[in-house]
Write a structure and sequence with these properties.
The chain has two domains: about 45 residues; about 45 residues, no CATH class. The protein is elongated, with a radius of gyration of 18 Å. The chain is mostly helical. The two termini are about 20 Å apart. Helix 1 packs antiparallel against helix 2 and helix 4 packs antiparallel against helix 5.
Amino acid sequence: MSLTIVLVAAVLLSVAFHFLGVYAGAKKTVWLMLILMWAAGINIAMSEIKPSGYKKIKEIQGKFANTDALIKDAGSEISVYEMLGIMQSYQINSPKK
């Protein structure tokens, strides 16, 4: 699933919640909830992965050139979003069992 699809779905859900708030007469509450949801989602996506994630990176490093390029681009602190991209690249390149 690409980031574009996730963002489109999030925007559509945000619009749906907005109209629900307008219908219920709770516009301010719904907008506050939407802001908090977006802030939490961005915070989770940009947070650093757990130490076990770095172990997984060490295991897959050196197997495929484009996966190694993603690992190198991520730098020393890898976010959850970058880890998802690295794992997607690895799964695309790895042979099916």
